[in-house]
Amino acid sequence: MSFPHLLEPLDLGFTQLKNRVLMGSMHTGLEEEKGGFEKLAQFYKERAIGGVSLIVTGGISPNLRGRLAPNACQLSFPWQVGKHQIVTKAVHEAGGKICMQLLHAGRYGYHPFSQAPSKIKSPITPFTPSAMSARQVRGTIKDYATSAALSQKAGYDGVEVMGSEGYLINQFVSARTNVRDDEWGGSFENRIKFPLEIVRSIRKRVGDNFIIIFRLSMLDLVDNGSTWDEVVELAKLLEQAGVTIINTGIGWHEARVPTIATSVPRGGFAWVTERLKKEMNIPLVATNRINTPEIAEHIIESGQADMVSMARPFLADPDFVNKAEANTPELINTCIGCNQACLDHTFSLKRATCLVNPRACYETEINFIPTTNKKRIAVMGAGPAGMAFSVYAASRGHEVVLFEAKSEVGGQFNLARKIPGKEEFDETIRYFINQMKLHKVELRLNTRLDASVIRDEQFDEIVMSSGVVPRKIDLPGFDNPKVVDYQQVLNREVALGERVALIGAGGIGFDMAHYLCEPESTTLQPDKWLKQWGIDKEYAERGGLTSPQEASEHRDIYLLQRKTSKMGKGLGKTTGWIHRLVLKKHQVKMKTGVSYQKFDEQGLHISVGEQDEILAVDNVVLCAGQESNRTLQEEMQATGLPVHLIGGVDVAAELDAKRAIRQGAELAIKL
To answer: Which cofactor does it need (predicted)?
Structure first.
């Protein structure tokens, strides 16, 4: 067995877990959809079949005021039990165990009825909470216990009490958000009464043979957060109160430090779990950016934790554990931490899914059923769309030939993976290469598809996934060799000077600015990354924060956009702030409302409003979007065969791998 520690059973006394893998809590949006619990049951069932030992659901509120949003899910009444039984039955039939997460949003509630320890507004929600009265505090504790008892009736194996990420319990514990002067505030002993009473009340209602996980904020990453001694003291008291397992919580949602984005080093926070493990007698779970069995195995084997929690990796691949057990980790569809289809969807009140796995949360709707009408299909272009279609179509039984003019597959992913913090894109390319071998896709590199090949080889259908080309700008001086496009830079076809102007401030412009600012990726250097973001492993100050390391000397960079809207407005909802902050650290100069005039020996001539100016730059890099590469479309259509366009060749908006891969999947189902 290649991952013996990860796959070793864990004895909890009254029950045993078959391995050390916990599927962490994720809110999918199915919880609120009509018929969503049937879809949710299939979603969890596939992960249980895939080998996960213990699943934790998305957050379920113990009462009305604790909901994350007005229509969010709660479990407070017996009549609500039935829909949960659909889920627990499915998981148990698949051989898994499942806990329901109890989450009270507190001041993070996105509605006017939110409550918190004190009347202090969150910086990430528009609503100011009301301060809970002492009676409401006691009532909320009772609601937690009632909800846990109902979850037991619904067939759950336990509950996870969400005590981290800045939600209600965290708000009571921290002096940052708890300024009460009664028995529930003031001293640390008073502030931690709330979580301790919740756990005691739950344990009293559910008995001894029921799992209670407590998600403990071990590293707040906000000013005036908990000290390390306070974290340890609360953890020990939670153990005494009846907690079975302590799960690691990292950072409040309002923290200005990345905690789960792709730029966070793999296993980058396991050190804090290891630090607490030395103090505890119950199992501890490490979390955040654990996305491969190798990383997970190392964490368990080295004694950093007793279990690992992975959430998004099970969106990417429900069979993660089974593939590890079969010693085929190369077949795992690795989570790249992009957030684009999971957290960005969740925070936009959309159903979550996965950029690299469009079936995630669509298990009852997207399925690749074997075809009864086998076709020979020619695919032009081995970018994300072309690779995805080829794999999915071949898995259905079609004969697929994938043509790629270049010497390697990957398309725009080959450019993206060169950006600091986006090295994970390598994993998606590796996954599709292995899937193409598995499903016998014929891959022809260094080969252009043309009409003669179509005629000679008798294809039935043509799929164009030939991607995009950078958009050119026709202005005086823009034919100068010092004016280049982003692909030329990332492919290292040109050398840039020390002063650079970037035209276009979408995702490509931000990526290019980051690329030029950081010659070495700190994502691959965990200790350097921690210092860059001001995270103190010594935990000398509250919240585990210290002063961020200053950025080293770098190029003089201008990031320019025509629009007058906020710079980076179109970036991901949960990651855009990270990109903006990185460029701010590197002192990138940002200008909006820019009109471009010409480029000459003086530099780039622009105007902002009524003001003309010259940016004395050595180079201009065009990041102003792209155009569909439809050079051969007419030639393909002239063959008389059906021609399908997917990915960038279909719509050349801001690069969108999520749409490209999903289009590939949907077309594969139809053909």
So the answer is: FMN; [4Fe-4S] cluster
DSSP state of 61: B
CA gap 424, 330 in Å, rounded: 14
Annotated active-site residue 108? The verdict is no
* Alpha-carbon gap, residue 619 to 18, rounded angstroms: 58
Q: 347 near 573, Cβ under 8 Å?
A: yes
Distance of CA 444 to the CA centre of its chain: 33
Amino acid at 405: A
Token readout for 139 is 């009532």
For 4, counting Cβ atoms within 10 Å of its Cβ (0-12 exposed, 13-18 middle, 19+ buried), the class is exposed
Residues listed for the chain: 671
Residues 64, 92: Cα–Cα separation, whole Å = 29
Question: Which one-letter DSSP state was computed for residue 264?
Answer: S
Residue 176 near residue 223, CB atoms below 8 Å? yes
Residue 112 makes CB contacts below 8 A (sequence gap 6+) with 127
- Cβ burial, residue 71 (10 Å; 0-12/13-18/19+): exposed
The DSSP H or E segment spanning 346 is helix 343-346
The rounded distance, in Å, linking the Cα atoms of 439 and 371 is 14
3 state SS of 129: coil
Q: What is the pLDDT of residues 104-162, one digit of tens each?
A: 999 999 999 999 999 999 999 999 999 999 999 999 999 999 999 999 999 999 999 99
Question: What pLDDT, in 10s, does the model give residues 205-241?
Answer: 999 999 999 999 999 999 999 999 999 999 999 999 9
| Of 324, 270, 352, 334, nearest in space to 21 by CA | 324
* CA gap 167, 59 in Å, rounded: 11
Strands (E) in 478-618, as ranges, are 483-485, 499-503, 556-560, 589-591, 594-600, 603-608, 611-615
Is the distance from CB of 313 to CB of 293 less than 8 angstroms?
no
| Contacts of residue 192, Cβ cutoff 8 Å, sequence gap at least 6 | 172, 173, 230, 233, 234, 237
Q: Phi and psi dihedrals of 270, rounded to 5?
A: -65, -25
**Residue with token string 């296993």:** 267
CA nearest 286: which of 301, 312, 267, 302? Answer: 267
Contacts of 195 (CB under 8 A, 6+ apart): 161, 163, 169, 172, 173, 214, 234, 238
Q: Which of 110, 156, 167, 558 is catalytic?
A: 167
Alpha carbon distance 333, 134 (integer Å): 49
Which distant-in-sequence residues (6+ apart) come within 8 Å of 541 by Cβ?
Answer: none
62 contacts 78 by C-beta, under 8 angstroms: no
What are 391's two structure tokens?
Answer: 């794999």
Rounded to an integer, what distance in angstroms lies between the CA atom of residue 649 and that of residue 667? 14
The whole-angstrom separation of Cα 635 and Cα 647 is: 19
Distances (CA, A) of 138 to 150, 194, 195, 311, 333: 19, 9, 11, 32, 46
Q: Is 131 left (phi over 0), alpha (psi -120 to 50) or beta?
A: beta
In this prediction, residues 167-187 reach a mean pLDDT of: 97
Q: What are 421's two structure tokens?
A: 């913090």
Which residue ranges form the domains of the chain, and what is each CATH number? 10-18+27-38+57-83+96-286 (3.20.20.70), 376-468+639-670 (3.40.50.720), 472-518+554-624 (3.50.50.60)
pLDDT tens sequence across 610-666: 899 999 999 999 998 777 777 888 888 889 999 999 988 887 665 688 999 999 999
Instruction: For residues 323 and 317, give the distance between their C-alpha atoms in angstroms, rounded to a whole number.
Output: 10
